[in-house]
Amino acid sequence: MPRKYRSTKLFYKYYLNWIHLYKDGAVRPVTLDKYYLTYRKLRVLAPALHMNELNRQTYQELLNRYSETHEKQTTLDFHHHLKAALVDALDNGDLERDPTRRAIIKGCTQHHKKSKFLNLYELRLLLNHLHLEQEINWDWFILLVAKTGLRFAEALALTPQDFDFEKQLIVINKSWNYKEKVGHFQPTKNESSNRSVITDWKLMNQFRALVEKKEKSWPIFVPHKQRVFNSTVNNLLEKYCYKLDIPVISIHGLRHTHASLLLYDGVSIASVAQRLGHANTTTTQETYLHIIEELKNKDSDKILHHLSQL
Fold it and tell me: pLDDT digits over 71-83, tens only?
């Protein structure tokens, strides 16, 4: 006989228990906070929804209520957090069918946001404008992220001993917790984020001179006993973008720019995913879908041109 679903627990309580069981102590605090935020939203939006009442319609109604005050991307994130728990509930026999199947993601009107990417011309304008002094400053940080695609916290955590100057590699094996008053090293976002990133000889020679007198095990961009804020770098970057009359971009946008330009230049998705420290190529494909689609169109032209020569 087919297995009957058996959970009649309130959905928000089931979700909270799922967080305790699978996420507490297993993910970084910043990621865990996002799950708990989803729980708080769920409790407000569906305080009386039981697990045995979940189906495609009731789940879609929940998403629709959330989307009334959130943009489409935020609604998608909310959906992904809930779906992870519901897939486990389905595997455990607590649900008979997947209520998230073919869910429609909606969202309210987007607010004006910073651009995610710069094109090659705009990036060159920005890098040529940087004030690269003989001592470490935030302009060097901008250059480093633009050329490596590192996450903000990964770049902050770099110490002199993370630079392999002979092999032109930067070793990423930790990040810097800058969100607490007293910053400290912490693990990278995931196991795939532990990697070595190759870069050009010019950048390595520049940093060889910059870090040779620095404390070997201390982050080169973090002054002792001083707190670092990502807004400091983003505000500087914004000022440069306005001055150069190019799209205003965040430091994380430089990471996106780095990846998009590599893809446009023909670097494989697998290599870009590994360079960025993505857990799998699916993440890369979803993030840069519009670029991949554009490249597919170019490939189709190449295929047709090749076939016409036969």
Answer: 888 999 999 999 9
